[in-house]
Amino acid sequence: MKAMILAAGLGKRMRPLTDHCPKPLLAVAGKPLIVHHLERLVRAGISEVVINVSYRAEQIVEALGDGSTYGLRIHYSHEPTPLETGGGIQKALPMLGDQPFLLVNGDIWSDYLPARALLKDDDLAHLVLVSNPEHHPEGDFALNQGRVSTQGTPRLTFAGVSIIHPALLAGKPSGAFALAPLLKQAMGAQRVSGEHFTGHWVDVGTPERLTALESLLTHSR
Fold first, then answer.
1. Quick one: DSSP state of residue 76?
2. Rama region for 3: left / alpha / beta (φ>0; ψ in -120 to 50; rest)
3. Which of 6, 54, 64, 119 could cross-link 79 (Cys pair, CB 3.0–4.6 Å)?
4. What per-residue confidence (pLDDT) applies to 220?
5. How would residue 13 be classed by pLDDT, with cut points 50, 70 and 90?
6. For 180, how many CA atoms within 13 A lie in the half-sphere containing its CB?
7. Cis link prior to 154 (omega < 30° from 0)?
8. How far apart are CA 117 and CA 100, in angstroms?
9. What single string gives the DSSP state of each residue in 178-218?
C-alpha cells in the first residue's frame, strides 16, 4: 500500500512560525514534523509516499529529497495554489495508482496507522476517529458498530488518518474541492468504516499545540 501525506497548506494558524517555514518542516522533538510521519510509515512497511506541496514547496523538497535517507521513495505532487484535500488527492492519483492508499494529514501527530485490511468489501474509506479534543468538542462523525455516519452519538473527531479508495473521487473534475462532502456522501451509502483510536494523537494546528506535543514527546523518551 502506498501513502499520501497532505502538506500543501499555508499554515496560517501557525503564524508567525510559518512565515518563512512550511508547517511540515516545523521541528518537534528534534526533527521536522513530517519526518515523524515518514519514519512511522517505514515502520508500518510502507515504502512509497506521495507528498503534495505548494506553500514553500522547494523547502520541503530540498529537506526530504527522494526519500532514500528514510528508506522509502518520495514522489511530489506540486500545486501552484493549494487544491484543498479532495483536489490535492485527485491531482496525485496518477502517482498513487488504482488501489487503496493510506492518507495522513501533515499537521497531526499520532503513533498509530491503520492496516490495509481494515478497508473491506465495497467500502470507499476507513477513518480513524479520536475522542473530541478541547478545541473541537462537538466532534465530526458518529461511530456505531464500526460504521461511520454524519448523524448520531457519540460524536468523535476525525483524526486526519484514513485509508481511501480512489473510487471515492471518481467523476470529480480537476481543480480545488474538499474531501469532506465526498466522505459524507459515501457515509450515506453505508460505505465508510471506522475505528476509535484512544492512544496518543495531537492536532498540531497552533503554536501552543506544537509546544504541547514537544513536551509530550520529550517526557515520553
1. E
2. beta
3. 54
4. 67
5. confident
6. 8
7. yes
8. 10
9. -SHHHHHHHHHTT-EEEEEE-S-EEE--SHHHHHHHHHHHH
Query: Which residues, at least 6 apart from 74, have a Cβ–Cβ distance to it below 8 Å?
Result: 38, 49, 50, 51, 64, 65, 66, 67
φ, ψ (nearest 5 deg) of residue 142? -105, 150
DSSP designation for 131: P
Domain segments of the chain as ranges: 3-220
Helix-, strand-, coil-residue percentages of the chain, each rounded to 5: 30, 30, 40
Cell of 5: 501525506
For the stretch 147-190, pLDDT in tens is 999 999 989 999 999 999 999 999 898 899 999 999 999 999 99
Quick one: CATH architecture of 3-220?
Alpha-Beta Complex (3.90)
Q: For 59-91, how does the pLDDT look when each residue is reduced to its tens digit (9 = 90+)?
A: 999 999 999 999 999 999 999 999 999 999 999
C-alpha cell recorded at residue 22: 512550511
pLDDT, one tens digit per residue, over 110-157 is 989 999 999 998 999 999 999 999 989 999 999 999 999 999 998 999
State how far the Cα of 162 lies from the Cα of 199, in Å rounded to an integer.
16
Cell of 51: 507528498
CB 125 within 8 A of CB 186: yes
